[in-house]
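hey
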């Protein structure tokens, strides 16, 4: 069937901010869809609130709306743009839920907009727990015993038949939100109540427990002519009971017999036909009882999912691109495969390698959180590795996680043989309860003499996988027994490399250096070779160069360019984590686009399967490899690049820069030495003196005694942190000697021997972020952002506004001057980010430099969207020798509208954690609000972040002593707007004295009813609480944690409270949603001479 010509304009709904359960895989799928539809001649309109994505680049769609993804805002966009169709299956659960809202409300019918990609009834049938179960039973499939309930009473009745333990799954949620396993009646009641509250349709599925069964996923596509292709069979290493997003997964499935695979394949196709998916990709999940082979179908996603991105990268089959083409009428047998150019999309991919995905968790950011893995997803990112065997791909994936492990064992983090070697009791506990360290404890179990059967009984991990791990441990023992590199045979070294062992591991066991191991094996002729990912197991020639490394004889590396083109390697950011996310992937993609513009060859190196950077057509060559010195040098050995870009992937490539430079690899842009100088406290002080700039009084400490001495000299409060960490890891404000002593005892190991930096903490200062570009001669400011939260809240967690909304022209000019001076002194070539603090004392404002990062920052994409100038792309061209003047970039852009970036936090995944913001970054993603005024832009940013700004109701106010008086006028404004205010006695006294009507509520220790009771009864609609104490165990911490549990918005900083009141005031005057395309906003800017 040819493409549809009755459709001219299509709206794609994106997935919004990066949250746990919905990450940048939907940026990847959205970008593919935009490209796919535009090449077919359709006009594409996009809505997405996330500025950090490539998807929201103004050139990706014809019209781009960076607006909240709610049905109200999307309705407005539909009214303005009048598209013929809406495509909701590429924006994750957010896109699907929003489209279903528009459907149910009759808005699509009213506006004459067709839903393509999946019909409303198909989505409802697949996503509704009861309707899906009925559909599966109808086609003869086995499903777990279950019941769909809508009230707690119904649940209590149903569980009598299902029994405990029971699985609880909330309908229409993402990443298992609202789900859990209940082992007793009390847990059951609590988890069902939570699931009902979190499900947008107040529906929960109760299921018999199949914990411990083997879990599989089938990635599948179907078209309207009933052609069906299985893209990939994925096997979970972890058994049922761990969310698939938190499980290690392997493709192709390793432990299915051919008969079992065919049964599962047939069941998948029957499922697709019965549900009625006929224009796109889906994901069907199965469980198999390992004792009797019983197979049940768990659920399906009638959309492109997290696993779709993994399956696409694992096979080279572009699922999202083909799903978009199916949505506009094509069939699979009409769409060519880009990689082979000979086969069609109805030709199922075949792979002759093994892919392993391992999740990346950041429990260290939430020490109060429960690290147990269950059916509610908790990981924030993932890494993927490709090898010829499971052993090789597993060890590559473990080092790709960037958590200090360079494989299955060995290295500084290996506890075996140290004084911290775990006991049998600890090992048993770590194996029986799923957690982020379980993989390493399997090795400890094997080293301690535990049998495969014993480990299986504790973990239910298939024995085949355990035997593979046993083989790795056996070879490790052989390597250790060999004693040294000199006595190791060529055969042993080659076998170790084929098992995925890194040079780092071998150096550790043979007591030598990684460089020595590398040089020695190269002398022996043991070098990495590269293989192509071609979708067809080498049956046809591949045209899209997508590679992975292994240790074999045949090498398929691309030849050196013969046309005189220069070749540049771009190092990506590896797995997403808090502190280093999609923003850096955005910058890496822009670098690839810049190289294309200039006619250079770009080579992307990354290990993250969710991203646009690892799409096969983003760069000229793609190497799916861990970001370690060894793996990058292996690529450079073969490809001989003219330069390597380390500035764009966050801290990951910067950590490799020195090692690469020492090995003779040309690093382009700002030199690694200058990047180090900005990180090194003493060198940086010298630089500031040279530039005649001020920084807060500070010092360096190596132990408690020197820390106390520095703090006494500069005065409390002090900000303490280890050097060389990202995302504010282990950063804390200490108000007295006791808190400093505790910090030095608990956090000093984070930087492994690095000094602790101690700064005078500037209370109530305004923090300012500046992004700039320099080519060594000219420096141009990209954007000046004023933080909404005061200094002390990590810049990645603070909301910020561009242009600044309260700074005067004199202060802004001072910041500009300081930026130019620093760029000159540091010899910046490329991007730089500077953080300033502006301290107001009387009528005088002092500008302090807090830190300088001569690299891409997480604000680069936001500034680019706010100003219409792609900073990373311009900087990449600068790094390969194209000056700013040649690019006609010589003036700062000053928008005539306001853009606000707001952070999004995962607190609802870690219930009981104190949500107060501080110097350690905890947000997973961000949204952007754009409007003519700051209050309205801030309001949009709140809606985009999922915060409901109430128009009426009750606000609870409890302020720390220093903030009570400053809250009087905002509180008065709330009363004017018709809100009721309740407060604890201290705050209430100050408000009453000022003539603000307030009702006193008991503190937690003063008995009941107290605030927790009011929240539980839905009587509180917003909480303003600046902390005087921090921690989940304080009364305030309990209040803030309860706010998350009850879904009550809670603001923990004074400027945040003031901004919320301004936004609510603005909304009361103009309650109608206003939307405008990014392309139209960008025409409203003025130039400011650099």
């Amino acid at each position: 069937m040819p493409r549809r010509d009755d459709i001219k304009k299509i709206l794609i709904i994106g997935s919004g901010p990066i949250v746990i359960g919905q990450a940048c895989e939907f940026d990847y799928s959205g970008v593919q869809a935009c490209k796919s539809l535009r090449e077919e001649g359709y006009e594409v309109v996009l809505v997405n609130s996330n500025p950090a994505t490539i998807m929201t680049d103004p050139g990706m769609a014809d019209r781009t709306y960076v607006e909240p993804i709610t049905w109200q805002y999307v309705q407005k966009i539909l009214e303005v743009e009048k598209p013929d169709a809406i495509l909701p299956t590429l924006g994750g659960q957010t896109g699907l839920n929003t489209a279903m809202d528009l459907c149910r409300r009759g808005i699509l019918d009213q506006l004459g907009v067709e839903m393509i990609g999946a019909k409303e009834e198909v989505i409802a049938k697949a996503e509704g727990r009861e309707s899906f179960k009925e559909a599966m039973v109808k086609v003869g499939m086995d499903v777990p015993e279950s019941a769909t309930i809508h009230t707690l009473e119904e649940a209590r009745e149903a569980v009598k038949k299902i029994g405990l333990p029971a699985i609880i799954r909330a309908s229409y949620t993402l990443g298992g939100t609202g789900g859990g396993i209940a082992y007793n009646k009390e847990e059951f009641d609590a988890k069902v109540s939570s699931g009902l509250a979190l499900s947008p349709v107040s529906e929960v599925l109760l299921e018999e427990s199949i914990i411990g069964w083997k879990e599989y996923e089938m990635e599948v596509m179907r078209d309207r002519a009933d052609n069906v292709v299985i893209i990939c069979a994925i096997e979970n290493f972890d058994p049922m009971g761990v969310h698939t997003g938190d499980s290690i997964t392997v493709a192709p499935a390793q432990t299915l017999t051919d008969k079992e695979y065919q049964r599962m394949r047939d069941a998948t196709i029957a499922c697709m036909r019965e549900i009625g998916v006929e224009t796109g990709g889906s994901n069907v999940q199965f469980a198999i009882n390992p004792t009797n082979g019983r197979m049940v179908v768990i659920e399906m996603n009638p959309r492109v999912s997290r696993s779709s991105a993994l399956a696409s990268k694992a096979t080279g089959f572009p699922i999202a691109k083909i799903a978009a083409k199916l949505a506009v009428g094509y069939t699979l047998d009409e769409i060519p495969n880009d990689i082979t150019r000979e086969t069609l999309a109805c030709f199922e991919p075949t792979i002759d390698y093994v892919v392993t995905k391992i999740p990346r968790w950041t429990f260290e950011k939430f020490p109060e959180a429960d690290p147990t893995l269950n059916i509610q997803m908790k990981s924030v990112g993932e890494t993927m590795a490709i090898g010829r065997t499971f052993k090789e791909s597993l060890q590559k994936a473990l080092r790709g996680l960037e958590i200090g492990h360079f494989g299955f064992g060995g290295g500084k983090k290996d506890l075996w043989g140290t004084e911290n070697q775990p006991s049998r009791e600890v090992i048993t506990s770590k194996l029986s309860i799923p957690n982020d360290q379980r993989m390493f404890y399997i090795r400890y179990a094997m080293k301690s003499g535990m049998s495969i059967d014993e480990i299986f009984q504790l973990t239910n991990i298939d024995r085949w996988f355990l035997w593979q791990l046993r083989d790795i441990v056996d070879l490790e023992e052989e390597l250790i027994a060999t004693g040294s590199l000199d006595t190791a045979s060529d055969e042993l070294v080659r076998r170790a490399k084929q098992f995925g062992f890194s040079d780092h591991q071998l150096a550790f066991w043979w007591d030598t250096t990684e460089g020595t191991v590398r040089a020695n094996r190269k002398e022996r002729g043991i070098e990495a070779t590269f293989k192509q990912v071609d979708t067809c197991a080498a049956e046809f020639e591949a045209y899209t160069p997508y590679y992975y490394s292994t240790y074999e004889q045949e090498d398929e590396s691309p030849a050196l360019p013969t046309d005189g083109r220069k070749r540049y390697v771009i190092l990506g950011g590896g797995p997403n984590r808090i502190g280093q996310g999609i923003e850096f992937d955005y910058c890496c993609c822009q670098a690839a686009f810049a190289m294309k513009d200039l006619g250079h060859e770009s080579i992307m190196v990354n290990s993250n399967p969710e991203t646009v950077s690892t799409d096969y057509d983003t760069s000229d060559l793609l190497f799916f490899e861990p970001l370690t010195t060894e793996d990058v040098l292996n690529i450079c050995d073969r490809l001989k690049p003219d330069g390597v870009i380390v500035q764009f992937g966050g801290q990951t490539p910067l950590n490799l820069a020195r090692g690469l430079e020492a090995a003779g690899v040309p690093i382009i842009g700002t030199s690694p030495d200058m990047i180090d100088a900005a990180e090194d406290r003493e060198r940086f002080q010298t630089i500031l003196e040279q530039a005649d700039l001020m920084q807060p009084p500070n010092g360096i400490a190596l132990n408690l005694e020197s820390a106390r001495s520095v703090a006494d000299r500069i005065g409390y409060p002090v900000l303490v942190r280890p050097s060389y960490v990202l995302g504010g890891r282990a950063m804390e404000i200490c108000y007295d000697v006791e808190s400093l002593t505790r910090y030095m005892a608990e956090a000093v190991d984070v930087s492994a021997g690095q000094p602790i930096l101690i700064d005078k903490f500037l209370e109530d200062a305004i923090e300012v972020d500046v992004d700039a570009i320099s080519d060594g001669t000219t420096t141009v400011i990209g954007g000046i952002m004023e933080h909404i939260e005061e200094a002390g809240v990590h810049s990645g967690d603070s909301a910020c506004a561009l242009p600044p909304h309260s700074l005067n022209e004199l202060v802004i000019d001072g910041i500009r001057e300081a930026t130019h001076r620093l760029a000159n002194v540091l010899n910046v070539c490329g991007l730089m980010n500077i953080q300033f603090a502006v301290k107001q004392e009387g009528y005088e404002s002092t500008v302090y430099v807090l830190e300088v990062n001569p690299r891409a920052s997480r604000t680069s994409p936001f500034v680019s969207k706010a100003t219409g100038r792609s900073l990373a792309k311009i900087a990449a061209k600068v790094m390969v020798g194209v000056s700013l003047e040649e690019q006609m970039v010589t003036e700062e852009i000053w928008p005539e509208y306001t853009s606000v970036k707001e952070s999004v936090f995962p607190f609802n995944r870690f219930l009981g954690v104190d949500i107060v913001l501080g110097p350690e970054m905890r947000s997973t993603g961000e949204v952007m609000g754009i409007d003519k005024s700051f209050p309205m832009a801030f309001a949009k940013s709140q809606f985009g972040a999922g915060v409901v700004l109430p128009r009426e109701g009750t606000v609870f106010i409890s302020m720390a002593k220093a903030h009570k008086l400053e809250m009087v006028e905002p509180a008065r404004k709330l009363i004017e707007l018709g809100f009721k205010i309740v407060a604890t006695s201290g705050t209430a006294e100050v408000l009453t004295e000022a003539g603000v009507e307030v009702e006193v509520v008991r503190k937690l220790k003063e008995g009941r009813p107290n605030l927790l009771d009011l929240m539980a009864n839905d009587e509180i609609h917003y909480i303003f609480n600046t902390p005087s104490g921090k921690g989940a165990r304080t009364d305030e911490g309990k209040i803030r944690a309860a706010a998350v549990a009850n879904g009550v918005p809670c603001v923990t900083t004074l400027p945040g409270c003031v901004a919320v009141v301004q936004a609510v005031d603005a909304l009361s005057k103009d309650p109608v949603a206003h939307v405008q395309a990014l392309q139209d906003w960008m025409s409203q800017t003025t130039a400011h001479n650099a």
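The first strand starts at residue 9 and ends at 13. The radius of gyration is 28 Å.
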